Amino acid sequence: MFKAFQLVILFVSCLAFLSGPLAAAGDEFYSGKTLRFVVGFSPGGGYDVYTRTIARHIAKHLPGNPTTVVENMPGAGSLIATNYLYHRAKPDGLTIGNFIGPLVLQQVLGNKAATFDGRKFGWIGVPASDHAVCIFNNASRITNMKQWLSTDKPPKIGGIAPGSNTSDVPRILNEALAVPTQLVEGHKGTAEIALAMEGKEIDGSCWSWLGIKATMRNQLESGNVSVVVQVALASHQELQNIPLAIEFAKTELAKELIRVGSLMYSAALRPYAAPPGTPSDRLMVLRKAFLDTMKDPDFLADAKKAQLEIDPIDGAETAKIFSDLYKMNPAILARLRDLLLPKGAK
User: Fold this and answer.
1) Residue 71 contacts by C-beta under 8 Å, 6 or more apart in sequence?
2) In the chain, at which residue ranges do the beta strands (DSSP E only) sit?
3) What are the backbone angles phi and psi of residue 2, rounded to the nearest 5°?
4) CB within 10 Å: which end of the chain, N or C, has fewer?
5) Helix, strand, coil % (nearest 5) of the chain?
């Protein structure tokens, strides 16, 4: 009986020892600290709105209740922020990056400017899968897909940089469907693209329906902007009358390109990650806090007010999505390399 009691005490002591580092990573480490979010795009866009909404609520789900701050680091379609997170940010659990996920595809394709390995980030999660669509302003006189396909003047399509949905989706559609396109890249974020559309400097753009709702609400409600096509495998519940791009594909190659584009610019689009080498116990704390925030009633009310959809993907699944890119079929990889990799990027 005494030996059995000793075994119970030993077991409880072991549990306490094993749980100690995780508790220390939270209560002792985060108390009095500042958790910094680095957003790879300019203020006002979809990435910025999501991040600032998360930052307002995540602290109460972290032991020690740290303060939070959001820093915008725009440039090269969030590549500057991604490289910064990989090479320069301290891997101490106090920095979280938010950048466009398909940049990892750019690295897999061989873009020499993407100087990171997507398998080494500490993936924290994704707040919601995205749904790529293409939109046009009234000045373009394009209100449906038939008009886009038949126009004799290629519309100016606003883009950010290779690796972003704003640049890659138009390229995929141009290749797969031969839609007339004049891609105008170099915008710092979707907020800047929205202003350029409003000012009639460009005719349209292709990016996330979630982000469009967050940044172009007034133009959508007034009818000054039209959604003409969905680049997705299934219709969004709010866009049942808008056709899918794959419906216009006439060859198997075109269908496959659109399928890959539909997948790549959905779940993988807006991930959150910690720098490589972040201690595993702190990464676990951040992952749990992220998921707890996604279920927080106050956060959900805030997200609804900002018209942000919430359908989270956890850190482990996010890590798998990106690691699978490194196992892509070589034939598809070669075609995507020709289509999406910028000239001089190899």
Assistant:
1) 36, 37, 38, 39
2) 34-39, 67-72, 95-98, 122-126, 132-137, 156-158, 182-184, 204-208, 225-231, 272-274, 313-314
3) -65, -40
4) N
5) 50, 15, 35
